[in-house]
Amino acid sequence: MQSRVALVTGGTGGIGTSIVKRLAQMGHKVATNYRDEAKGRAWQAQLKEQGIDVTIAHGDVSSAEHAETLIRDIERQIGPVDILVNNAGITRDSTFHRMTSEQWSDVIGTNLNSCFNVTRPVIEGMRERKWGRIVQISSINGQKGQYGQANYAAAKAGMHGFTISLAQENAKFGITVNTVSPGYIATDMVMAVPEDVRNKIVAQIPTGRLGTPEEIAYAVSFFVPDEAGWITGANLSANGGQYMGW
Ligand code: CAA
Ligand code: NAP
């Protein structure tokens, strides 16, 4: 297998760390962004202790200017990006009748505009080199909606609209574009949901438990090898059976 350059946005987070590790274990050179340098360096050192080298660069993906600088910095350090995982994301949950314009735009900016901001500076290079893998980390709640998440569900559904358009435009260039839609995974994002509400959600998951970040990293890795070149525009649900729409 050829070693490629991979960028996982939000790689320092719960799901991101597992995706970074898995891609590195597959033999790829992996990079991610940080917003807080001290936090980014501490995370990098922790992975180094586990035998995983990760390149890091500063960047807030909700800003097109930051994203462009981030990509050029990574290119300088390890070469052009062949595999992009748009994973960075946030929640600002609130019922819509109470939602502020800031809660709306923060979530759309970080979760959806980021896909434009980060993918735009890498797509031309992938097209020239005739190979690329782009994976959006969407959510079960983009597929089914969720009480208190009009902003988040809109952004996550939008991510798959982005996937299926890009998939069509870039198929002839050896680039596949796919979505992974995780269900509820045990990371800080889900632990921030009030415990009583969270317990009610877990009760609706047929597997009877939250998912693990490793289970999402496995789903992402499925789209990466050359053998996955025929799979594009897909939305892979990894949700413990909580939502089985198709
Ligand atoms: N369906 C129907 N009614 C619901 C409901 C639901 N899913 N959730 C809450 N309600 C009702 C409550 O029963 C309550 O009704 P009453 O007023 O009649 O008692 C009313 O809504 C208000 O509920 P809360 O007291 O919880 O209201 P709140 O304003 O304090 O909080 C909330 C509202 C922010 C939406 C809170 O319920 C919440 O955090 N819910 C979880 C949202 C969620 O799933 N977020 C996912 C975060 S993780 C993630 O996003 C990752 C991913 O992709 C899966
Ligand atoms: P997490 O642990 O909170 O990690 C989020 C990551 O995104 C962090 O590295 C964070 O960096 C980064 N990030 C946030 N805003 C950013 C910005 N503006 N610019 C750059 N990086 C930013 O969350 P997670 O659970 O791993 O979630 C990862 C992705 O999976 C998200 O897109 C989320 O919506 C999606 N998802 C999660 C679940 C779940 O159940 N956990 C389910 C479905 C989908 P900082 O440290 O700088 O904040």
Can you describe this structure?
With 246 residues, the protein is an alpha/beta fold. The chain has a single domain, classed as NAD(P)-binding Rossmann-like Domain (Rossmann fold), CATH 3.40.50. Helix content is 48%, strand content 15%. Helix 1 crosses helix 9 (213-222), helix 3 (64-78) runs parallel beside helix 4 (101-129) and helix 4 runs parallel beside helix 6. The protein is globular and about 45 Å long. The mean pLDDT is 98. Acetoacetyl-coenzyme A binds next to helix 5, helix 7 and helix 8. NADP nicotinamide-adenine-dinucleotide phosphate binds next to helix 1, helix 4 and helix 7.
Q: CATH first level: which class?
A: Alpha Beta
Largest sheet: 7 strands, parallel
- Give the CATH H-level superfamily: NAD(P)-binding Rossmann-like Domain
Number of helices: 9
Count the strands? 7
Task: Kindly estimate the percentage of residues that lie in beta strands according to DSSP.
Answer: 15-25%
Give Rg in angstroms: 17 Å
Order of helices and strands: EHEHEHEHEHHEHHHE
User: Would you tell me which CATH topology applies?
Assistant: Rossmann fold
Helix content: 40-55%
Ordered list of secondary-structure elements with their pairings:
Blueprint: E1 5-8, H1 14-25, E2 29-34, H2 37-49, E3 54-58, H3 64-78, E4 83-86, H4 101-129, E5 132-137, H5 140-144, H6 150-170, E6 175-182, H7 188-191, H8 195-202, H9 213-222, E7 235-238
Parallel strand pairs: 1-2, 1-4, 2-3, 4-5, 5-6, 6-7
Helix pairs in contact: 1-9, 3-4, 4-6
